[in-house]
Amino acid sequence: MDGGQQAGGFDKAAHRVVAPRPFSDLHIGERFVLPSRTVTDANFAAFQVVSGDNHPIHYDVEYCRAQGHPGLLAHGLQVLCFTASGAGLFPHVLGEALLAFIEQSSQFHKPVYAGDTLYPALTITELQPQRTTGIVTVQSTVHNQRGELVLSGEQKYLVRMARL
């Protein structure tokens, strides 16, 4: 059997979350919502392990309170992680045309604490065709449960112009 076709008619190449689209089918203003998440103490602990960051503003409640915060303050990079495109449909829409995540910038507007629920989204703001590749620029945003913008930024992805 060839082309990924296996016994029983199953084709692993056809097993996709969404049908991939070429660069030319992407549109400025297209929005990709990522799942909402409530930040928990477990998120703080996991981020500390991964990042190695041990500043007390992120991990010592009494220190945070002494600084005027009601609880643990989420690290900006921890909040940024909620904008990972792989948590949503965006990279599936690009499929095998996605070559690389090439650039990222962020601004942190409001504090995020354990118990806050975050609502991330990516919106295509620019499509820059090149010869064989293109650059897709998306605006990243994260709002909290009160509708406040806590993070805004930009991400860029290098994408093949044509399907494989």
UniProtKB/TrEMBL annotation:
Among CDD domains, the record links this protein to: R_hydratase_like
Q: From which domain of life does this come? A: Bacteria
Q: Which Gene3D superfamilies match?
A: Hotdog Thioesterase (3.10.129.10)
Q: Which Pfam families match?
A: MaoC_dehydratas
Record-given protein name: Acyl dehydratase
Domain (MaoC-like) spans 28-141
